[in-house]
Amino acid sequence: MEALDKIILFIKSVKFYGPIITIVGCIIVYHLIIGLLDKAVIVGKTEYDKKKRRTIIILFKNIVKYVTLILGLLIVLNIYGVNTTSIIAGLGVVGVVIGLALQDALKDIIGGINIIMDNYYVVGDLVTFNGFTGTVSEFGLKSTKIVSANGETLIVANRNIDKIVNLSQKKVTMYLQIPTAYECNEKDVEKVLVGALDKVKKLDDVVPSECKYLGIDQLADSSVNYLIQVKCGQGKQFAVKRAVLGIVKEAYDNNDIKIPYNQLEVHNGKDI
Question: For the whole model, what pTM was predicted?
Answer without folding.
Answer: 0.51
